[in-house]
Structure of gamma-glutamylcyclotransferase:
Amino acid sequence: MNLLLCFTMVHSSRDYFLYFAYGSNLLRRRIRINNPSAEFVGIGLLENHQLDFVKYYGNWGGAVATAVPRPSKTVWGAIWKMHMDDQASLDMQEGVANKEYFAKMVQIYTPDGIKTKCRTYQHTFTPQVLMANELLPYERRPSITYKEVIVQGAIECSLPTDYIEMLKLLPHNGRNASDDIRKRLGM
Ligand SMILES: *[C@@H]1O[C@H](CO)[C@@H](O)[C@H](O)[C@H]1NC(C)=O
């Protein structure tokens, strides 16, 4: 099915929504743990946002990704078509009720120039902007596992090569995620 047709169908259907993922949910087997209906539609670009990392999450063994509004920065991600029934489980995974992340609608551009509205999540805590060439401070670094999930997801989705290279250069904190998460991810 071509992309345009797919978007048209999604827009005309009330049973599905589009979700823009930029963190661990780039990886198919990760998103499917909680959201079995997720279908990959394509990659997309979120303008005027920057990928950043916040807060220590014990199960991940490190900080997790957020997309922070910052002028002239861009975040690449995956557009997933999700069944409405999965919206609650996605909100739960993102900790919306606990005020970890909040959901918002954003305009996403595909490489073909199609504009589409997607649901995405931003962490409620906005980290301080780093200086040019300043590395993520230790307490904001993702674990080995979380970084690996993002990099593998970016490769699996075929995000642009320079963006994948940027992800590979992110410093990690030298820790692994919990055994439970690693087992579920097969990592
Ligand atoms: C992380 O996991 C790898 C692979 O299982 C292991 O070799 C390494 O020792 C672990 N590192 C830490 C800090 O637990």
In short: The chain has a mean pLDDT of 93. The longest strand covers residues 62-83. Residues 27 and 153 are 4 Å apart (CA to CA). Helices lie at 3-11, 28-34, 87-93, 144-157, 161-168, 179-185.
